[in-house]
Amino acid sequence: LIESTYGNRLHKNKEDTYFEFRDILNESINNRGNIVIPAFAVERTQEMIYSLNKLFNDGELPRIPVYIDSPLAVSATQIFRDNPQCFDEEMRKLIMSGDNPLDFENLNFVTSTDESKLLTKEAKGAIIISASGMCTAGRIRFHLQNNLYRPESSVIFVGFQAEGPLG
Length: 167
Known about the structure:
By secondary structure, this protein is α/β, with parallel strands linked by helices. The protein has 6 helices and 5 strands. It has helices spanning 14-30, 44-57, 71-82, 89-96, 113-122, 140-145, and strands at residues 35-38, 66-69, 107-110, 127-130, 154-155. The chain has a 5-stranded parallel beta sheet with strand order 3-2-4-1-5.
């Protein structure tokens, strides 16, 4: 059996993908613009939080603000946090050591529409993770509209993009 979404593709291994993500983030951070990441609200956003936490803790990224701007992603992240018994052994060890990979000091959760709109004016040199992952709806469209024209800003796609949608 094979999962059909990626059935006809070969992918880099996770370690190479992680280092590529780190390098793209650092290049984007050096431009001093916002980094907009369209991400699916459940699982992909939490994977991004986990990876960013590791990059910050390892000193591989400067501690810039990270905004999760999706009410569903915020709720899903809380469900993940509330159920550590569902994590694998590696994740439980991290939490027991005092490092909750789904929480760090420069991580901000945005739930209201007004807070989301303020990001356009206030977020400078920040990472904004928002749904939907394929850019078809949701707050990501607003962030793209307000960052795509800025040469200092970047968009990083971290998930599957089907033919046809905006992403």
